[in-house]
Amino acid sequence: MAVYTDVAAEEVAAFIAGYDVGELLAYKGIAEGVENSNFLVHTGRGSFILTLYERRVAEADLPFFLALMEHLASRGITCPQPVKNRAGQTLGRLAGRPAAMVTFLDGLWIRRPSATHATALGEALARLHLAGADFPMRRDNALSVAGWRQLYAACGERADQVQHDLKALLAAELDLLERDWPQGLPQGVIHADLFPDNVFFLGDKLSGLIDFYFACTDTLVYDVAICLNAWCFEADHSYNVTKGRALLSSYARVRPLSAQEWLTLPLLARGAALRFLLTRLVDWLDVPPGALVRPKDPVEYLRKLRFHQKVKSASDYGVTAP
Amino acid sequence: MAVYTDVAAEEVAAFIAGYDVGELLAYKGIAEGVENSNFLVHTGRGSFILTLYERRVAEADLPFFLALMEHLASRGITCPQPVKNRAGQTLGRLAGRPAAMVTFLDGLWIRRPSATHATALGEALARLHLAGADFPMRRDNALSVAGWRQLYAACGERADQVQHDLKALLAAELDLLERDWPQGLPQGVIHADLFPDNVFFLGDKLSGLIDFYFACTDTLVYDVAICLNAWCFEADHSYNVTKGRALLSSYARVRPLSAQEWLTLPLLARGAALRFLLTRLVDWLDVPPGALVRPKDPVEYLRKLRFHQKVKSASDYGVTAP
């Protein structure tokens, strides 16, 4: 969590003048987002988030992300809405970087989500998938099954430094998932990173979804599997069947899952666990000595992967498939 | 610039519930202040800054700082105004730390202040000194002449690592200032750290003063000397006589300086330069290898000190003393 780029008031004011949002009243660098520099901006017309995209986000992908947020907002999804400048564009440049301004969303993220929160999340995820159905742009998921071997190549040799025999486990899991990964399931826009810190609540009511910078075109139920991992395990890594049931059944009430989607859920959940295990492992092994930011623990996702390896069917997640 | 303490929404909401400010709608850790953790908070009643005081601020001093902001705000100075909780107190506890909430001030700080900004600053500083005249509390300035020998002891031996012969220069300057430091000048509340990043503007109009955590009871014109150093030198370290004249004459229009104050200004400016040279030197020499935050350059203040050593009278600053 950091602000990477420091921008002078004079520069921000000149940038804001290109938008019809009133005078710049204040801006503060906020400690949010690992990938970009974010500023909370107050203008005569309200609050906005100004984002400067740093090198880890591919500039070519920005039109997809911004157009997606516009599309979803127009379909009633509460997400940051890109603001158009006077030239009608959502993407500009500030301090030598691509930059965009989006509406500010009120809300708080919940550190220890309850089953009530999981219910709200399941419904919001299904609505997101439905709202994205007619989004015309496409972006491949570089972090799905086709991308995992490359991640494994970057960290496999050193994986045993983190846990004994981890390299062999990763290799076997990767072989299995590459062989059995399901084809032909319903596809569409997925968020792909809908962890609790990207979901805002006011009280028990879900008030917004943020951070669409991993969004892509992929298997919809894979997004459900990512959320199952991110929302339904306890701090001790045990699966909470009440939260799982809450998430899955509320999702299915809004967007019913096919028999094939229920059937493949355990395999997709293994895939989702492997994806975060691999990326966390790469980050963990890449940390320079003495760094201030400690990356997220990969072992958390190893535990989740092992849980899913033992799951026989979706009913182990707490839901009886129709 | 960092947020040191991470606080969960649940904790912030519970803290905010102790105040009559409406429901917590959002909070963001902001990259502001080196000493404390600061959050920009949105509630049903508006925007606030929530500060968690970290170890570098003495808890015993907090009542002084908070009462001072209340006092100044009640006298018409635009500064953050501490909010009282339902028990009538401005100081509370959050995440095991002393914590306070103050009103949010709109405004931007100016990286390259002009003479117009220096004029506004001079007037605001004088108004601050007048408004503080009847503030009943007292806090000694640990970073004035009586505290410098201790700072010198902490960095003098290694000073020559930064610049050849710096140790000898510091020793001689310290001897001279300890011997000649003026007594009996008008005293009162001084801000003691009124650098451009602590002064907000909207356009050319000064909109607020922030960060009173170095405020103390000391010689008023010493505060003017600190501002002369902080506002009236260019990036190449040369003194800008137009800005100096602007600051000093606008200050004196609101609070006229006595003949004795004008006379001692060059010596006080040397002292102000030595104070920031010493503290920056301590920070510079204390940085662990590989640290992400680069401390401020002490040499900037060595150049300012050398300028003031050659000044013969206040007229060298651009103002003819009455």
What integer value in Å does the Rg of chain A equal?
A: 20 Å
Average pLDDT over all residues of chain A: 93
Show the largest interface: A-B, 35 and 36 residues
The percent of residues in helical segments of chain A reads 40-55%
CATH superfamily of the largest domain in chain A: Aminoglycoside phosphotransferase (APH), C-terminal lobe
**Name of the CATH architecture of the largest domain in chain A:** Alpha-Beta Complex
Task: Detail the poorly predicted runs of chain A.
Answer: none
Query: If strands are numbered along the chain, what order do they take across the biggest sheet of chain A?
Result: 1-2-3-5-4
CATH class of the largest domain in chain A: Alpha Beta
**Shape designation of chain A:** globular
**What structural class do you assign from the helix and strand content of chain A?**
alpha+beta
Per DSSP, the total helix count of chain A is 9
Assembly category: homodimer
From the 3D structure, determine the CATH topology of the largest domain in chain A.
Aminoglycoside 3'-phosphotransferase, Chain: A, domain 2
Major sheet summary line of chain A: 5 strands, antiparallel
Distance between the termini of chain A: 43 Å
Order of helices and strands of chain A: HEEEHEEHHHEEEEHHHH
Strand % of chain A is 5-15%
Task: Please tally the β strands of chain A and state the result.
Answer: 9
Whole-number count of domains of chain A: 2
